[in-house]
Amino acid sequence: MSEKMKEHYDNVIHFIDSLMSLDCLGLIKEGIVEVENECQEILNQIVFSQEDAEIKRAKETFESFIKICDLIKKSEEVSCQKKELLELKSNFLSYFSELSLNKKKEPLRKWPDEHFDARAIKNFFDERIIGLEEAKKKMISIIIANKKNLNSRISCLFIGPTGSGKTYLAEVAQACLNVPVEIVDVMQLTVPGYEGRNIEDILVNLLRKTQGDQEKAENGIIFLNEIDKKGSEKNSDISGRGVLNGFLTFFDGIQYPVTYNKKRYTFNTSRLTIFAGGSFSFVLEQMKKKSMGFENPLKTSCFNEDQLRTFLEKYGEMPADLIARFTSIVILPEHTKESLKAILSRPLISPITVKWGLFSKEGVTLYCEEDCLEAIASKAIESKSGVRALNSIVEEIVQEAYWEVLMNPKVYKTVILNEETVYDSEACLLEDGSGTIKSLREWRLPHAEMKLELNKK
User: Fold this and answer.
1) What pTM did the predictor assign?
2) pLDDT tier at 352 (50, 70, 90 boundaries)?
3) 208 and 269: one domain?
4) CATH classification of the domain holding 64
5) Are 214 and 126 in a shared domain?
6) Rounded to an integer, what distance in angstroms lies between the CA atom of residue 340 and that of residue 342?
7) Which domain holds residue 170?
8) Is pLDDT at 112 greater than 50 in this prediction?
9) Separation in Å, CA 83 to CA 80, 89, 97, 218, 375
10) I want to staple 46 with a disulfide (CB 3.0 to 4.6 A). Which of 27, 58, 64, 443 is the partner?
């Protein structure tokens, strides 16, 4: 979705939500005109940028949106208007969710024959990652700089709390670029000669991803995940610091003998682009205390990079030589309620999109109200697990409704997730074919009473 189209998309959602809060027939009729105008602008963008098959479908879809808008303008009851607004928003979100799911994820550029398009890569990252501007810019600029400069390599360490998006940065790069990306769970690594994964396995995986193309593999990207878990002095040299020290040669460059597909390779690690990520929770706690006090948010601007490296060595128990190999360090902020809500509202990355697809296959439209998004975001913040909590929360709140739909095929046409659903999965609203809307608990009540009567008999 282009920036311009996204702006109109956000406007439609904002206008509909604003109209839903009104109780004035006339104001809703006036406001729906703005929704029509924004829909027309989106359609113009689709006609300009999409293929013929998508244009035809888009025209048909947006014609249905306009018809709903006309019904709202002709309606003489606020309750009817709001019901139509609910359907409009649901259909609108559904269309863009499906469009995002069906969108082909093709590589942006070949490596290393062509130059990367920095703007296109940034747009790809922006569509999938909310915020984290410094981290996105740093990762993209390092990848491009290392491609152009074969004499010296730039690397970066990403620090941030659980669920802040460290690993996801690498996953987006993997989806975006035609470059082999190996995301390494450092916790599984041991030094060579002992049971477990080692450095050679990482290089073999890069060769596997390039079908043995050594040049392409040597210009690949490695992301060392959970690197902070290996820093403790309590870890043995076999599984802890010995592994970290083994990475020093990666940064400096070494001719590493490996075997892939029964063929011997001498892998040159000096061309690799290396990133690493870790929560370093104790380090961040100490920085927080030193900056503005324990109860205040961490002010990273209070520290220069030398001080940050000292904190990582002292409190993160990371080898000084390894920390020195990272040419830059970026601290990712904790997600806020607003940023988590933005993730939930973005069809391309929202866990609700996946659930929408499941319900859609059963002929049911899933709709999530604004106050439900707020409650999910709040609950995720309370869990202190960031984005990771969103998937589990969404799974928890829809499971009862999904089971009801599966057990009663062709009965329901709409499932509405409201704020109460976040704390009680049976509080969601289900609409049947006749237009009757009741909570899941109310729908199940007659079945429970029937079972009770049968048991008595």
Assistant:
1) 0.68
2) confident
3) yes
4) 1.20.120
5) yes
6) 5
7) 118-331
8) no
9) 5, 10, 21, 58, 22
10) 58
